[in-house]
Design a protein that fits this description.
This protein has about 260 residues and is α/β, with parallel strands linked by helices. The chain has a single domain, classed as Rossmann fold. It is built from 6 helices and 10 strands; from the N terminus they run βαβαββααβββαβαββ. The protein has a 7-stranded parallel beta sheet. It starts with a strand and ends with a strand. The chain binds 6-phosphogluconic acid. 6-phosphogluconic acid binds next to helix 2 and strand 4.
């Protein structure tokens, strides 16, 4: 299945457009099934998107209490640390809307029940995903309705970095990651098979430092070199870019979405 690429003018326009798209997607899924699930990403654009959603009056159309919230990766730091993706998502959005705390599935912290052991923490998260998966999901994790993934300049998604062993993982749904090239060095990440179990994967990318990685991912480079190339949704893969991130794509691939 081919990916759809949409290009917006600049990062604020892109964040607002992704937020608007999230409202539509989550409202549609909830209207059809009574519930929805989302996987959040860390990173500057991911958090800016959550802040844009918090500022949008249309956010009231989402039934926040019937939304399951998961994370694609986490920086393995103590609970409440300012650099945790969870802490940033709570401040940008989750603390401002009426989520059900039981349905906010944060990845464990380094001072959590497994202490400073990222593999044990990853196994704990894998167990939570497994117990939330329904038979129709056909896997070790729920078939998420939408998964947001930021992309690094090296092409990483979640905490799956180029050439690292986690990219070859086929059995576990979640792994502990050590010696990450992006700080902090210890992280927890969903694996590619878990990412590929999502119904829709949205790669959200801004900035000229990402242009080469975006081009490589969309021109046939494999996921070991460019992990983002392996982030494909079951029914849809959407690349949502600003102009700078799209700068190296052929015009035939990138459709401009904003004037
Ligand atoms: C993290 C992420 C990571 C991020 C990309 C893009 O923990 O930092 O989850 O995968 O999404 O590195 O981040 P930026 O948008 O800040 O470039």
């Amino acid at each position: 299945m081919t990916a759809t690429v949409l290009v917006h003018r600049d990062p604020p326009t892109l964040a607002a457009a992704i937020a608007a798209r999230l409202v539509t997607r989550l409202v549609d899924v909830q209207a059809a099934t009574g519930r929805a699930s989302i996987v959040l990403t860390g990173g500057s654009l991911g958090i800016a998107t959550l802040a844009a959603l918090a500022d949008m009056p249309a956010r009231a159309a989402i039934d926040w209490r019937n939304l399951d919230i998961w994370w694609g990766d986490e920086r393995f730091l103590p609970a409440g640390h300012a650099d945790r993706n969870e802490t940033q998502a709570r401040a940008a959005l989750l603390d401002k809307v009426g989520v059900d705390p039981e349905r906010v599935h944060a990845m464990p912290a380094s001072d959590g029940p497994d202490g400073d052991d990222p593999e044990a923490a990853a196994a704990r998260y894998a167990a939570a995903l497994k117990s939330a998966a329904r038979p129709e999901d056909h896997g070790l994790a729920p078939a998420f309705d939408v998964m947001l993934l930021g992309v690094g300049p090296d092409g990483h998604v979640a905490s799956l970095f180029p050439e690292k062993p986690a990219l070859y993982e086929e059995v576990r749904s979640v792994v502990g990651v050590r010696n990450s090239p992006k700080p902090p060095p210890t992280r927890i990440s969903l694996t590619l098979p878990t990412i590929r179990g999502a119904k829709e994967v949205w790669l959200v990318v801004a900035g000229e430092d990402k242009a080469s990685a975006v081009h490589l991912a969309l021109s046939g480079t494999g996921p070991v070199q460019i992990p983002a190339a392996g982030a494909v949704g079951r029914s849809r893969t959407l690349w949502l870019l600003d102009r700078a991130a799209a700068a190296k794509l052929p015009a035939s691939l990138a459709r401009a979405a904003s004037p």
